[in-house]
Amino acid sequence: MTRVTDKALGMKADITRREFVQGSAVALGASLAPGLVADNPSGNRLSDGEMPLFDYPPTKTGLRGAHAGAYEVAHALARDGARFPNPDVLDEHYDCVVVGAGISGLAAAHYYQQQFGAEARILLLENHDDFGGHAKRNEFHQSGKMVLSLGGTHNLEWWSFSDRVKHFMSEHGVDTVAMRDQMTFQYGRSAPNSPAMWFDRETYGEDRLLPQFNLSRKLTSEAIERIPISRAGRDTLKRFYSSVPMLFSDKTEAEIEALLSGISYPDFLRQYGGLTEDAVQLFAKEEHGSWGLEMRAISATEALWEGYPGAHLFSDEGWQEDAVGYPVAMWPDGNASLVRLMVARLMPHVAPDVHADNVAIASFDYGALDDPGAAVRLRLNATVVGIENTDAGVTVDYVKAGRVLRVRSRHAVLACYHSIIPHLCPTLDEAQKEALRYQVKTPMLLTNVLIRNSRALDKLGVDAISCPGRLHARLFLFRGINTGGYEYSEDDEGAVSLVFWGSISPPEDAYDLKSQLRGSREKMLALTFEDFEREVRTVLHGLLGPEGFDVTEDILAITVNRWPHGYAYEYMQLWDPQWAPGEAPHEIARKSFGAIAIANSDAGASAYTHVAIDEAHRAISDLVYGG
Ligand SMILES: Cc1cc2nc3c(=O)[nH]c(=O)nc-3n(C[C@H](O)[C@H](O)[C@H](O)COP(=O)(O)OP(=O)(O)OC[C@H]3O[C@@H](n4cnc5c(N)ncnc54)[C@H](O)[C@@H]3O)c2cc1C
Asked: How many Å apart are CA 336 and CA 331, to the nearest integer?
């Protein structure tokens, strides 16, 4: 195992430039009057200005997502049992306080206005320094050009939209059909040698890139021969991929289904595919990005359904062709643009004249989010620590800048993670608390590395690479998408974002799913920015160094979006029973109580934007009709 020194990786050399990149971004962002869009004749070029620097959250680099200052109060409350007595009672009375300014919280504010009138006074409290929850915008500026990338929630899965969500989208000017027409991005399937798999020196003894390599498609013996694992491992892979249907001929379909849904995919590969351990390991992190889970948490049925190989062992349906073509609708900053449209509608003074055609390039006035004169206010860096029903409505206690403060309201909507609600509302009944605790979120990771240009990747002819031995299991080049007013060109020679994504492998001895999720979360929170930085530099040095990429010079900025509480908990075949209607934990967890209703994608046990919106609507209906 050979490690590259920090000096060779440029760990120290780059700090000045990193600060410069960020500083110039802030200056440029500030040069726009709120709501004005960037002067954008070509490539999102902003006009220079003389405005002072200020903190513009989307441009912050370093450790983001759960950033320092965002989670400490919540952890003190939930993990250490801290109490926050004697709040200063503010002279603020609202119709509704919404906890959490993610998609669900903002949608709840929207539906509350529709139900109770545009003049209803609403306060959104959010513990991060930016709004949007997982739907986070990463905004870089380099040489006067704005480069957008995904900080969390990527895209709209429009085919699953309810009629309500479709209507919500049209109310916000979102045309998913038009967006799809502009969707050129294919998660790194556009380059001739993509997808590829990269084997790294530290794990596999040598750096080796295998172009046009996809474990889900039928691999040839020649391709398998190039995988740097044991001879026995390669031989078992060859047998596995070339097998003809032999298995389960004595079983009924129902028996096969029962067997496959009761065994993990890696166990299936071992027991029925005959693979050695080092061959099985190639698959271990393949679903870190999409599911946020280690393969051992996923049943064989679920994996086969996702297109992983194995069905050919017992059925003659044949191998699928590489399915290119992502039908999703997407903005260049992911669903952060949807969030911005919601904020612009709820608080027009924050982003005047912002609409679907310019939302991606507009500048928002963060200083006006908490305007005392506005019907809707959004207060950042405010962690809610307690909510209680009273005779007159609710009291909501939160911590901001070290002070414990209280506001009063007629209603409240909890659009935050469900697992914290028992700590916010200690008087809830035990059954509901238990149901809320059931929902352990999936840790997710999205690290944007702004690189000087894509030349080295272009030489290799790849734009998406799996890295089975590394911390981030996958990376893809994100040149941009021409939606929301953003413009990019395939021919652009300039800075571009390389997205490293996935999750963190849980400790080996974490067996059940929730132990895996919690173990992964702890490991994620223990990693420093330097750990992530060293990791991406090591990967880029080994992968792109031979093509002329200089890690000491060509990395311009790094933004680590860590989401220790990422996807909503979704029920999995190996770990969760089949619940009778109305008895699933999320259905019990989301019941309203008194003047308090519960939203968030957790309430639908489904990690999607449209679910977050539907659940917001249900929460407001609960306030009106009881839930
Ligand atoms: C990396 C990643 C990629 C994803 N990609 C997609 C995708 O492509 N498509 C898709 O549909 N979905 C995707 N999702 C799922 C995503 O979770 C949902 O789409 C949606 O953004 C969830 O919105 P939400 O409002 O329910 O929750 P959140 O976005 O989590 O918002 C809840 C907010 O409440 C805040 N909060 C929590 N506790 C408190 C407190 N005590 N006080 C104040 N505030 C609090 C949180 O910090 C957070 O900001 C992705 C998620 C992740 C993490």
From this structure: 8
